[in-house]
Design goal:
single chain, two-stranded antiparallel sheet, 4 helices, 2 strands, elongated
Length: 125
């Protein structure tokens, strides 16, 4: 499976400037994991999907978000931008892919974003 490099870079660039600065202990892996991944994505250096969302941001974030106990430093804007980035980083399809059998092998045809497609030709989450 491939990563949509253009869409990934676009969503990473939108997320990067709104990462909270107040996590002094880096208990959510914002500095240790999230920022470096975003920089790699912006520079088109991620070629394959990230398999686990905890590889992007600490699992504590997802637990506290589910429980409704996230600190106020995580704004709704950050949460939405992170979700959009996760969809792209993990190569999650927006709908079921169309499967085709070519020479006995099953392939999924996926649409990839091209430079200049945003915002007119892009499906919005």
């Amino acid at each position: 499976m491939e990563v949509d490099q253009v869409a990934l870079a676009r969503t990473a660039a939108a997320l990067f400037p709104i990462i909270p600065e107040e996590d002094v202990l880096d208990s959510y892996s914002l500095e240790r994991t999230l920022r470096p991944i975003l920089m790699r994505a912006i520079n088109h250096k991620i070629g394959s999907p990230v398999l686990e969302r905890s590889g992007i941001i600490d699992g504590k974030y997802f637990f506290e978000r589910r429980e409704g106990s996230l600190p106020a430093i995580f704004t709704s804007e950050f949460n939405a931008a992170l979700s959009r980035f996760l969809v792209r980083a993990m190569s999650m399809p927006l709908d079921w892919p169309k499967l085709q059998i070519i020479d006995g092998k099953t392939w999924a045809l996926m649409e990839m974003e091209e430079p200049g497609d945003w915002p007119d030709k892009i499906r919005h989450l």
